[in-house]
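Hi Prof. W.,

I finally got the CehA/McbA family metallohydrolase prediction working! I wasn't sure whether to trim anything, so I left the full sequence exactly as given:
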Amino acid sequence: MSLMAAELLSLATSLPDPALDLHYIHHPVDVPEGTGELELVLEYDKIVDVVQIYAVLLEPDGTFRGHVQCPGGPGPRRLVIRVGASDATPGCVAGPIPAGGWTVRLDLDRHKVAAPYRLAVTARQGHGVAPEVNVSAPELIGGPGWYRGELHSHSLHSDGQKPVGDLVKAAKRAGLDFLAISDHFTASHWHDLPGHDGEGLVLLHSMELTSHRGHANLHGLTRWVDTYVDRPEHTMTHVADDVHEQGGLVCVNHAFSGDQAWRRFDTPWDRIDLIEIAHLQQGANNDAQIGLWDRLLTAGHRVIGVAGSDCHDPDDEGQALGQVVTVVHAGEGSERGVVDGLRNGRVWVWRGADLDFHVNGAVMGAATEPGEDGLVTIDVDVRADEPVVVFVLRDGLLINVVPADDRPGEWQRVTVLDRIEGPGYYRAEVHADPGRNDPQFWASSLRDHSSLRAASNPVWVRSELT
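And this is what came out:
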């Protein structure tokens, strides 16, 4: 009986013409009692950045059961979702198959022309036992201190090239202390995380919201979040509320990345916790991201700057882990410790130099008051293996440029004095020194993403602490 199959849906049709608010197409599927497994097959011709379709499978009550993407180049595609009581394809969740009205959602990731597609859903009878998941709390890897990690990576459960275990091994080789595997749409990769407890690495429960108007990582979750926000009844505000209810964080990713740029104008910035200011693969877009960050900070939003490689293949040197790192001061070496540390903002971005930053003794993420006559003392501690220059900024504007002494591998302190009236914030950047004989650099204080070696998060200065 377990091999008996019934075709529940079979159609050959076409996408309609593109429309501004057409993001999803839904096909209902009536699943009978006794179904032990469902298989969905979507076939179409992918045209990169023109026609790209993802498939999603939802239970009668809207519970997410799985998705499949279409990474790679153009050509004919056959995307398969298979879910059963005891097994599921990557990106999908195993478990009982309830009878009733399921939904196939076609996510029109790119929809710039009408295009044909074929869709079939098959049910098979049978029973199985849902796999057990180890829910024991992972061990602490340390006490209070600095932890270095990766906040943006992908496995086979979305569009990554390698399983979770390969990413964990790569993070260990890179000397990282924590790792967020932020697969698109799904939390199915969480089932693979417990198998790597005890390896001296904090693993965050994360996923990437992947909308048609921007991407955002969600960190520190305890349950799947409905990330399908391209529909009017479910917005980024709903997502942020859900994430924060779980004690998690929302991070805007690669905000200037073409069709994946952040254009969710329905999002109140006070619901955003983090923003990528150093993305390994975004090149000059990082300069725009830092500009946006300063704009948000000067507008009064408390958004913490972080880094991410967006690694899809840890064996590819161009996206290998450990090249851009988020460094967090955490109360303990655990997922909650790292998430709370990110929220607190004692965080800096590493791209080759170590950094710490204080204003009137206050740490990054904290607030302080100016001294007598509005005086503040800014201390930048830096360590690098190459000559570097320290840039000190107030409210996004450069107030001082100080070459650090050439002492490879040694900590040294650069101190800058300033006078401030009213509230504001300070932050610091460390850049590779182009050489004392470069008049263009010293005349214009030229710096960009390619010279960045480290960036602090702000210390706020207030007239009165609240």
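The mean pLDDT is 93. Does that look reasonable to you?

Thanks,
D.
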